[in-house]
Amino acid sequence: MTDQELKRMSRGDLIEIIYQYQSREREYVQKISDLTERLKDRSTKIENAGSIAEAALALNQVFEAAQAAADQYVAEVQSANADKGAQAQKILSEAVSQADTIRQQAQREYDAMLEKAKQECDAMYNKITELLRNYEELRGLLPR
């Protein structure tokens, strides 16, 4: 999966991926359980085998199969965890970047609103000052 595809995925899709990895993990646990059961069956066969050489050969094959299955399981789990860690880090960095962008936009809007309010206050102050001046002039013209 490419980075672009991961960016476009919804939270639900990401949860689905996690669910699939967990399902695989359960499958591998089941495989290990099956191999353990087969190992028990082979142990029984070995006990019934006539010679020590046959038993050693049968045991060796069982252990090789079990080791191969365990190695494969461990590799899959490590790969899945590495992928999830990288995805989580990427999502986190994107969220931080978006939050920063939103904060900067909010700061610009705040600054613009503040400047507009200052201009409106200055305009009102000038009007009030002019009205007071006119009032004083009119008052001076009226007889006392």
Task: Write a brief caption for the model.
The protein has one domain (3-112).
Which geometry do the CA atoms define? rod-shaped
Radius of gyration: 39 Å
Question: How would you sum up the major sheet?
Answer: none
What share of residues is helical? over 70%
Helical/strand content category: mainly alpha
> How many structural units, i.e. domains?
1
**What's the total count of β strands?**
0
Pattern of helices and strands:
HHH
Distance between the termini: 91 Å
Percent of residues in beta strands = under 5%
DSSP helical segment count = 3
Quote the average pLDDT.
84
Low-confidence parts: none
Describe the 3D structure.
This protein has helices at residues 3-8, 11-48, 52-141. The protein is an all-alpha fold. Helix 2 packs antiparallel against helix 3. It starts with a helix and ends with a helix.
List the helices and strands and how they pair.
Layout: H1 3-8, H2 11-48, H3 52-141
Helix pairs in contact: 2-3
Using brief descriptors, characterize the structure shown:
mainly alpha, 144 residues
